[in-house]
TrEMBL record:
Pfam families: MMR_HSR1. One of its GO terms (cellular component) is mitochondrion. Residues 109-282 form the EngB-type G domain. HAMAP family: GTPase_EngB (MF_00321). The keyword Transmembrane does not apply. GO terms for molecular function: GTP binding; metal ion binding. Gene3D superfamilies: P-loop containing nucleotide triphosphate hydrolases. InterPro entries: EngB_GTPase, G_ENGB_dom, GTP-bd, GTP-bd_ribosome_bio_YsxC, P-loop_NTPase. This is GTP-binding protein 8. Belongs to the TRAFAC class TrmE-Era-EngA-EngB-Septin-like GTPase superfamily. EngB GTPase family. It comes from the Eukaryota.
Length: 284
């Protein structure tokens, strides 16, 4: 159980250092996240809510263009999600198996989320960052684009399954479209598709393949902006505004809020864990 009185909105919590300190000492908070909560206020906000940092550079009349707080959990919610991603004896986080066809995929009845993106978008690096609280889980990361050739399945305790999909574009598997299209169309326990877009270059023509599949199959999906540590604040703001406009005007099934992340600085990683825990029914 969480300590009473700690379930406050994110902005209100930042104005109450004593409450943050109580949360960092709560038994419901992992040691790793307790250390995060002791960071200076501005550093903490940048780590947990990177879109809020982008908002600071917008004129007030432009802030309504961004959907910043549709999903705006408190640090207490994020602490609960971090525990879901923490490997313990009672919460095993493991690689399950790989498959090149849907009929070879493991029969896992728990909720499932998948990650899809262009080759070299940083997909495996992001999944490795999400699993950083389970260091024994091996997520292979290569400097060469197109390293992932199969669908890789990872179980997160009894909570849900994470699927690392092959990248599209450069060095994509020859049967990529058939493999991924069949999975997206037929996987009944798929709760959310996370479409990764490189924040340095924005949405590319090849990204439209995945977007069109999600839209055609009426799948709920989310755009995650990777590598935000490689963009200047001005460039990141430009990309966020362009991609947000695309989401607002060109999509039907995409979640309105963008999720910027860095697998290097871990900015946005805690928030993304929390969103995954939420859409799989683990924050109820």
């Amino acid at each position: 159980m969480v300590a009473p009185g700690l379930r406050l909105g994110a902005e209100r919590l930042f104005e109450m250092p004593a409450v943050l300190e109580r949360l960092s000492r709560s038994n419901s908070t992992s040691q790793a996240f307790a250390e995060v909560l002791r960071l200076p206020k501005q550093q903490l906000r940048k780590l947990l809510y990177p879109l809020h940092e982008v908002e600071r550079f917008l004129a007030p009349d432009r802030r309504q263009d961004l959907h910043l707080r549709i999903f705006d959990p408190s640090p207490e919610d994020i602490a609960r999600a971090d525990k879901v991603f923490t490997a313990t004896e009672g919460n095993r986080i493991d690689y399950v198996s790989s498959a090149v066809r849907i009929d070879h995929a493991p029969d896992l009845f728990r909720p499932e989320v998948c990650f899809i993106g262009r080759s070299n978008v940083g997909k495996s690096s992001l999944i490795k960052a999400l699993f950083s609280l389970a260091p024994e889980v091996e997520v292979r990361v290569s400097k060469k684009p197109g390293h992932t050739k199969k669908m890789n399945f990872f179980k997160v305790g009894k909570h849900f399954t994470v699927v690392d999909m092959p990248g599209y574009g450069y060095r994509a598997p020859e049967d990529f479209v058939d493999m991924v299209e069949t999975y997206l169309k037929e996987r009944r326990n798929l709760k959310r598709t996370f479409l990764l877009v490189d924040s340095v270059v924005g949405i590319q023509k090849t990204d439209n393949i995945a977007i069109e599949m999600c839209e055609e199959f009426a799948l709920p999906y989310v755009i995650v902006l990777t590598k935000i540590d490689k963009s200047s604040k001005g460039h990141l703001l430009k990309q966020v505004l362009q991609i947000q406009k695309f989401v607002n005007t060109k999509t039907q099934g995409c979640f309105p809020q963008l999720f910027p992340v860095s697998a290097v600085t871990f900015s946005g990683i805690h928030l993304l864990r929390c969103f995954i825990a939420s859409v799989t029914g683990n924050l109820d």
